[in-house]
Amino acid sequence: MTVLTPPPPPNPPPQRLRVVQRDPSRRTPMVGLPRRPLSDVYHYLLTVPWPRLMAFVVLLYVTLNTIFATLYMVGGDCIQNARPGNFADSFFFSVQTLATIGYGVMAPKTAWSHWLVTVEAFVGMLSVAMVTGLMFSKFSKPTARVEFSKVAIIAPRNGIPTLMFRMSNQRANQIVEARIQVAIALSERTLEGETMRRFFDLQMVRQQNIIFALSWTAMHVIDEASPLFGHTETSLGETDAEIVVSLVGMDETMSQPVHARWSYLPAELRWNHRFVDIIRSNERGERRIDLRYFHDVEPLDAAVVGDA
After folding, report:
1. Same domain, 127 and 162
2. How many other C-beta atoms are found inside a 10 Å radius of the C-beta of residue 88?
3. Is 287 in the same domain as 183?
4. pLDDT attached to residue 302
5. Shared domain check, 264 and 202
6. pLDDT of residue 9
7. Is residue 63 located within the same domain as residue 80?
């Protein structure tokens, strides 16, 4: 009896990197870029996640104390009240010196140790100043907590096909003079056979919101002047399309500009759907926004789609 083995499953298509990455760790690889790991350390540390930054600070702290503890041991019996040749005593004496604690139990007693204490105290002063500035800059960096709908929709609006997506301010304050810019990236092939990635601006019904406090539904009318005019769900996928959204505004609490970005791929567009209404009224007639339905969509009636 012959047993037929099923063919192996086809390899899944490789995931295309977005223009706007939702995961900061996923970036388009750059080949040929000069490697200069120490040229922009400050910017790198400002952009890394907090756990990685704290791990770096702890590693730097332990490394500095280990280096100075080793140098103290090179000087022999140079620390008063410390056990000669004991690395732990040298390490903890380095900790006290680097942090300028000075408990008074151990103290330098030779010229070698005095010079090392001088150098280490200076290094400790610089290190505390740099780490404090780095931590403050990272902690006080203004950010916008703007939630974008997970999908965008293309559906008739007053009988005209319209691209729509929702945004929500997740903070209890307001973003003043909020402004959005939307563009679509399309891959085009020239007559010479070259493939180019081009960006086309999408004119929004309302590009500016004086006070962005709760939610905002952005709309782009797909008429003859729209780069989306004539495209279908299939054709957008073939052109490697990506809709890129950029929001800029002023945080009223910190009086500093904030920005947020998002993007939608063709697979994240819902054709002939509408967003579930998130505006609710309680028994007293007071209006409120229910963000539990913020990402939900529902299909349109066939009659509505047919009329459009």
Report:
1. no
2. 10
3. yes
4. 65
5. yes
6. 47
7. yes
- 188 and 299 in a single domain? The answer is yes
Q: pLDDT tens digits, residue range 14-49?
A: 455 676 766 555 555 556 556 666 667 888 888 888
CATH, residue 263: 2.60.40.1400
Question: What's the whole-model pTM score?
Answer: 0.70
Residue 213 belongs to a domain: yes
Question: What Rg, from alpha-carbon coordinates, does the chain have?
Answer: 30
| Paired tokens of 140 | 């006080």
- Over the stretch 177-206, which tens digit does the pLDDT of each residue have? 899 999 999 888 777 778 788 899 999 999
Q: What is the pLDDT of residues 110-152, one digit of tens each?
A: 999 999 999 999 999 999 999 999 998 888 887 778 899 999 9
Percent of the chain with pLDDT over 90: 39
Return the half-sphere exposure (C-beta side, CA atoms, 13 A cut-off) of residue 270: 17
**Is residue 70 a part of any domain in this protein?**
yes
| HEC-encoded secondary structure of the chain | CCCCCCCCCCCCCCCCCCCCCCCCCCCCCCCCCCCCCCCCHHHHHHHCCHHHHHHHHHHHHHHHHHHHHHHHHHCCCCEECCCCCCHHHHHHHHHHHHCCCCCCCCEECCHHHHHHHHHHHHHHHHHHHHHHHHHHHHHCCCCCCEEECCCEEEEEECCEEEEEEEEEECCCCCEEEEEEEEEEEEEEECCCCCEEEEEEEECCCCCEEEEECCEEEEEEECCCCCCCCCCCHHHHHHCCCEEEEEEEEEECCCCEEEEEEEEECHHHEEECEEECCCEEECCCCCEEECHHHCCCEEECCHHHHHHC
Which CATH number covers residue 70?
Answer: 1.10.287.70
**pLDDT given at position 11:** 47
Q: Which residue, 100, 115, 139, sits at the end of a domain? A: 139
For residue 51, give its domain range: 41-139
**Alpha carbons 54 and 299: distance in angstroms, whole number:** 47
